[in-house]
Fold this sequence. Notes:
This protein folds into two domains: 8-214, P-loop containing nucleotide triphosphate hydrolases (Rossmann fold, 3-Layer(aba) Sandwich), CATH 3.40.50; 230-320, Hypothetical Protein Yjia, Chain: A,domain 2. Helix content is 33%, strand content 25%. The chain contains eleven helices and twelve strands. It is globular and about 60 Å long. One of its GO terms (molecular function) is hydrolase activity.
Amino acid sequence: xxxxxxxxxxxxxxxxLGAGKTTFLNHLLKNTDEKVAVIVNEFGDIGIDDQILEKTxxxxxxxxxxxxxxxxxxxxxxxxxxxxxxxxxxxxxxxxVVIETTGLADPAPVVQTFLMDKEMIEDFxxxxxxxxxxxxxxxxxxxxxxxxxxxxxxxxxxxxxxxDLVSNDHLTWLIKRLEKINPKAVTYLCxxxxxxxxxVLGIYSFNLQEKVEVTPDLLINDHHSHDDEIxxxxxxxxxALDLRKLNLWVSFLVQMQGERLYxxxxxxxxxxxxxxxxxxxxxxxxxGDELGPWGSDPRMSELVFIGKNLNKQKLEEQFxxxx
Length: 323
Ligand SMILES: Nc1nc2c(ncn2[C@@H]2O[C@H](COP(=O)(O)OP(=O)(O)OP(=O)(O)O)[C@@H](O)[C@H]2O)c(=O)[nH]1
């Protein structure tokens, strides 16, 4: 913690869809001694990350149905105000706020939230903007320009993740490419988002001057828009799903559309499986695993797809056939 700093430190975790942000958050929550208030923002209408995050003592607040970098930014400010007031009133206790942005968020407007609003400036201080990067898929995402590029350009720390999925030569090439985009950021290599927390928390690497160099209108203009071709589809189903059919469907789907399926994830109610089943993928790589028991929650499948030019009607029809 910074000396003589009474404001609440904020860590902004950014990175493209599927890069490893939630995995990082789980690692952080499990290993830190600090009490953390977590704000998770998801692009789809249904929050899946909240279910995947291993529950600890922490406050976890979800902001869904849009990106905190644009249409739900007011929700972010309201949430932060509520946290600051509750802390002052000693209703909740926490040492830090960690914000996990959606994979489609431009971090600049999120950072702006802490620089433009008087209340936010008084109560919060940005510790760092940390970008998780998927070593396997980032080159494709960068070739398409857009948010993946801003996330790297705007980070003060890069966690180059999923190093297990690429060769050393590719890593060396990638590090050079990242350095060209953002020569000032510190880069750490990691697998499953595992990193010593002292490298990430309490380092106060956020430097406003550097960010203004990257985004000259940072303190003036708050307009931001997304690539309209990218959208999300959220599906819910109470009836149990057939795992064999589901596997066949998804295998077919990724073969045919993997390139434009940026992210799909869900918590599923599978016939014959007692526990909740987490299913998730990034482009053509997907996996499923059993999660904890349903407890008192109703057994229900919730699945979110995020991709380019999704044929939503067809996806929904195919999903229902897995019942
Ligand atoms: N092989 C491999 N898989 C990883 C690694 N890190 C994370 N994953 C997997 O990648 C998938 C996406 O990880 P998440 O942590 O959910 O990624 P995210 O950035 O939160 O994704 P969004 O919420 O869609 O933005 C999950 O299936 C993880 O288990 C890694 O280092 N290697």
